[in-house]
């Protein structure tokens, strides 16, 4: 006969899952959460692994929704009961799940402790293996429930004497194991890790109390209670676990917090210290052991990036200086603790975008870089550590250098194109430009055609019409005749003719659209 009812929670919103987990003291009520999944596909792996009695599932989820999950589970495990969690606007989805044998449903906006417990007990009574269980309980809240609530930041009413009797040593530390594996594997890792830790602590012969806290996402969590003098042994335990992971070829990273004296500090230490250092694994390649007070910001602070100098170098075409500045900064990132991973990735993508924009504006042949920029952005945002970003940036910068040094697009043509871009509103002619650059007009015409995709007149017209389009969109108070003059056309009818040729419509019709 079963002694607890095993429950699996399925919802694509982590906050919803955590809210349900912390709504009840599950063990004292006769229930056990065996896992949580973000979609139906993840849930199916866990159903096969943990054989839950009840599944609490959302309806609308990515990858696989609750309706498909219900149909598959009831087909393979007909004895498993399913309770649907839905929002107000999902009645049709909920109704379709009842055809597959759903036991009950609950509205998420009205979810509370009393109603959830009532539905769980009623559903459990439908399960033959659980029908003899006693579902009324006068037990006090368990220590596990108290710790789960406290580390999540919820306020708890507890009796200090009960906690003092459980944790008899003056110091605490959090030991967190980050597992890069599927959610269904976490339970197996938990049992393996706890067994190894208990054995290691017993061999040390030092006063330690080890308490497992429920896992969250890919983090297995333990609370250590110890004497302040046993800090070196706590680090040794963490080291042994990290080494065991390497020997077993297991993708895990072990993090040990600083010692703290009050159990009520657990949320602060977990959220603002140990999770922070785990986030910085991105900048700490090949590290599978992180001890919080070994990595301080004072120790790892590096120089800030000089955005102003970088932009100035780009604008005056000192590309080698600008690109070397960016490359040196990215190369300095391993080991940094003062940089946020997401801010760094955004900075890199913005810098690459800025380089491409400058090259395009200065008429370098950067079309290939421009077309491939989103691939670079995607790879950078998906990178799991800094060593994946460094070669990407190096590859991009090499391509940018090739653009700058491309002999088919010499510096002279860029200066001519920039001059046209800046003086298009004047009555500009080929002779005017040739005179400015001390060229013979005939030579300039041939030189322009040789080094640019368009001839002089075609390029000048395109620049003027592009500016006219901006004015037509953004300056409704200007007449079309005024816009014609502003972009360098003294003849309104000629402006209309050129505009129609390039844009396929008249200026007035373009403005209306």
From TrEMBL:
High-level lineage: Bacteria, Bacillati, Bacillota, Bacilli, Bacillales
A molecular function GO annotation: sequence-specific DNA binding
Name of the protein this chain belongs to: DNA-binding response regulator
Entries under InterPro entries matching the protein: CheY-like_superfamily, Homeodomain-like_sf, HTH_AraC, HTH_AraC-typ_CS, Sig_transdc_resp-reg_receiver, Tscrpt_reg_AraC-type_HTH
Residues with 4-aspartylphosphate modification: 58
Biological process annotations from GO: phosphorelay signal transduction system
Organism: Paenibacillus borealis
SMART domains registered for this protein in UniProt: HTH_ARAC, REC
Domain of life: Bacteria
The entry's keywords: DNA-binding, Phosphoprotein, Transcription, Transcription regulation
Residue span, Response regulatory domain: 6-123
The keyword DNA-binding belongs to this UniProt entry's keyword annotation: yes
Signal peptide region: none
């Amino acid at each position: 006969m079963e002694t607890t009812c095993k429950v699996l929670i399925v919802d694509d919103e982590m906050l919803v899952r955590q809210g349900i987990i912390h709504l009840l003291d599950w063990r004292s009520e006769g229930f056990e959460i065996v896992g949580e999944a973000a979609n139906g596909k993840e849930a199916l792996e866990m159903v096969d692994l943990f054989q839950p009695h009840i599944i609490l599932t959302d309806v609308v989820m990515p990858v696989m929704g609750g309706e498909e999950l219900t149909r598959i589970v009831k087909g393979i495990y007909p004895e498993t009961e399913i309770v649907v969690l839905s929002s107000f606007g999902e009645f049709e989805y909920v109704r379709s799940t009842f055809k597959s044998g759903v036991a009950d449903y609950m509205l998420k906006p009205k979810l509370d402790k009393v109603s959830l417990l009532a539905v769980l007990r009623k559903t459990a009574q439908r399960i033959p293996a659980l029908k003899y269980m006693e579902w009324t309980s006068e037990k006090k809240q368990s220590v596990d429930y108290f710790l789960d609530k406290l580390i999540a930041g919820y306020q708890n009413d507890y009796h200090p004497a009960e906690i003092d009797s459980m944790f008899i040593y003056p110091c605490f530390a959090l030991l967190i194991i980050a597992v890069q594996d599927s959610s269904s594997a976490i339970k197996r890792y938990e049992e393996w890790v706890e067994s190894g830790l208990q054995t290691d602590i017993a061999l040390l012969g030092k006063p330690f109390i080890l308490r497992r806290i429920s896992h969250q996402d890919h983090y297995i969590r333990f609370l250590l209670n110890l004497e302040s003098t046993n800090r070196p042994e706590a680090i040794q335990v963490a080291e042994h676990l990290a080494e065991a992971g390497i020997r077993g070829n297991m993708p895990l990273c072990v993090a040990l917090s600083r010692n703290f004296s009050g159990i009520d500090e657990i949320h602060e230490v977990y959220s603002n210290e140990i999770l922070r250092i785990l986030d910085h694994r991105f900048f700490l390649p090949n590290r599978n052991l992180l001890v919080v007070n070994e990595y301080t910001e004072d120790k790892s602070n590096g120089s800030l990036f000089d955005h102003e100098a970088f932009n100035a170098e780009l604008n005056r075409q000192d590309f080698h200086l600008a690109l070397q500045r960016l490359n040196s900064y990215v190369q300095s990132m391993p080991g940094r603790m003062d940089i946020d991973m997401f801010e760094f990735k955004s900075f890199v993508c913005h810098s690459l975008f800025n380089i491409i924009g400058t090259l395009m504006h200065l008429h370098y042949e950067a079309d290939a870089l421009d077309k491939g920029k989103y691939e670079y952005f995607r790879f950078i945002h998906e990178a799991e550590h800094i060593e994946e970003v460094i070669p990407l940036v190096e590859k991009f910068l090499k391509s940018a250098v090739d653009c700058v040094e491309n002999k088919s697009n010499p510096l002279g043509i860029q200066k001519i194109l920039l001059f046209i871009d800046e003086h298009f509103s004047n009555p500009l002619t080929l002779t005017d430009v040739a005179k400015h650059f001390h060229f013979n007009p005939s030579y300039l015409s041939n030189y322009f055609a040789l080094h640019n995709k368009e001839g002089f007149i075609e390029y000048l017209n395109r620049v003027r019409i592009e500016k006219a389009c901006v004015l037509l969109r953004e300056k409704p108070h200007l007449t079309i005749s005024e816009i014609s003059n502003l972009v360098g056309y003294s003849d309104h009818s000629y402006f209309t003719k050129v505009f129609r040729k390039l844009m396929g419509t008249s200026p007035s019709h373009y403005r209306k659209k």
